[in-house]
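Same chain as my last thread, 275 residues:
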Amino acid sequence: MTPGGWTSVRVRSPSNRAAVANALFALGAEGIHELDDDLVTHIRDIDRSHAGTILQRADATASVEFSPTPTVDWSSEWRSRITSHRVGSLVVTPPWLAQQFTERERITIDPGMAFGTGDHETTRGVLRLMQRVVGIGELVADLGAGSAVLAIGAAKLGARRVVAVEIDPDAIGNAEENIRANQVSGVVTIIEGDAASLLPLIAPVQVVLANIISSVLLELLPIVRGALDERGMAILSGILKAEQSEMESAFREGGWRIVDSDEEGMWWSVTIAPR
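reply #2:
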């Protein structure tokens, strides 16, 4: 174990990338990068022996490497590592770069503990699909809101009201700050709690956004279906491309049709609607 510190984990050329990625998330990874044929992440307080066993179970052919993550003075270094990301008509930007963009197009996100700065492919996938779905005057629910980047994006696209649900109390403060900074407090409301319990109370909605791991998405599908109005759609991400066939089968069995989709890196995002 590396108490109080971060460990770099590199899985070289895994044959079962989906299983390895799921194992890394289960071990505490918050994001995974593809470097050549390898999967790389950083995990805090990891037990290397335990992690090695879990990853070997996921893919017996994979070679796993651990190394200490270098200590960096993030107070000065982090800004150079965070950039703006244009996604269609929207731009996700840190506060110190925000003035380059108009108020209407920019989603200003203060990088904090919450996931969602525009750096991740899943965030960008939902933002791209949203721009073909979210219309003026609609009610939107954002499940697993994190930094509230998607909720703010929906407000910028003209949603009448956006309810952002987040179960992690550590993310709530960051989300509230981002909502205020983007001047959408009159549209976006952040609620702490479990999406499965809260979504029926918000319903009916026209659009559900959910950037969550696929296993949780599968559990939420019946609840999401019940929360949508007759013309509603759901935009889902956090799905590995290797899991696409499994998810498509679940959609068919659950009475959904695929309306649109997006791919970037190892991730697949999808818009679905009840049949």
